[in-house]
Design goal:
The structure is a single chain. The protein has 3 domains: 15-75 and 173-213, no CATH class; 81-165, Orthogonal Bundle (T-fold); 217-341, T-fold (Roll), CATH 3.10.520. The longest helix has 22 residues, at 52-73. It has 9 helices and 15 strands. It is α+β, with helices and mostly antiparallel strands and 341 residues long. It has helices spanning 2-7, 52-73, 81-88, 96-111, 121-128, 141-149, 178-192, 283-294, 298-306; strands spanning 18-24, 30-38, 41-49, 90-92, 156-158, 162-165, 198-202, 205-209, 218-222, 233-237, 240-246, 273-280, 312-317, 322-324, 332-335. Helix 2 runs antiparallel to helix 7, helix 4 packs across helix 8 and helix 7 packs antiparallel against helix 8 (283-294). A hairpin with a 4-residue loop joins strand 13 and strand 14 (322-324).
Length: 341
Amino acid sequence: MTAALLELGFEPARPKPEHLEDTVLPSGEHKLVMDRRAMSTRVSVAAIHHSRHLLEDAAGRAFEEMDRLIGLLNRFDSSSAVSVLNSEGRLSGPPPELVALLERSATVFEASGGAFDVTVQPLVDLLHESPSLADGELVDSVAWREALERVGADAVRVSVGHVSLDRDGMGVTLDGIAKGYIVDAMAAVLEAHGIDRFLIDAGGDIRTSGLREDGEGWMIAVRDPRHGGILPAQLRLADGAVATSGGYEARYDPDGSWHHIVSSGSGRSPTDALSVTVAGPNVYASDALATAALLMSPREGVRFIDSLPGFECMVIDAGGRAALSSGWTKLTITSHEEGVR
């Protein structure tokens, strides 16, 4: 129905961002904070500049860019490029943004030894469509094996003019990288308009630039996956990104053994780690790397992130202990000190 209406020229109704803060600072500069629901979370833009008009225009255009990219990459929208690819198994003339994301996903797949794999969509869909899991029952073993056979990033073919999935019933989900990519794109819009002091937060996928009104870096708190009110780490970032991946976000069974992050190798959800937070130069890579590290043991995840220049991490294991990369504490004001390296 949505696709048919769009073909007739109807535009999807999108809520306007709310103004959460609109103040004049002692310096005479303006601070504007705008917020809107999107991508199953709240997306906010906080920015500082001498011109209030420029702030509002730039933030509005950043949200417009967000909507444009969601329209291309949302696999739940039947008219999106990703949905067409999943339903047809091929896509001619793919948008450059989809090509870029699939190529970047392939890079993380290789770097992580296959841990990060965007073709786990059949497994994720199987879990989502298995309501019996909520009652503690097991996943249907036959359906699970069939879904696992349709997984494998090595069967994705990408070129400028064509994308194809070489196994019947394959599908891609960009949930582990697209939100970060979109936040980076929003940041690029702000920078193109001359805004160089801002924080964008899309449910924990965060991009910062410049300093806050107090002359300090932007304050970012890492949530404890077991107890939301406890903050195991607080960071100050001037220019960079932070992303957190955790199985607690969408559990399908009572004890969290099955959740929305699954291994392309075993088909199972990881349980050794509860969350991984990665700090780096951009959000899309931090987002994807956090997902990849979550699919490893805590020690392996830390070693993996430590091997990548410019990235740091905190892994919180099933017992609530934190494993820290070698340079993590340099970013933090307070941090969990029970770490393994």
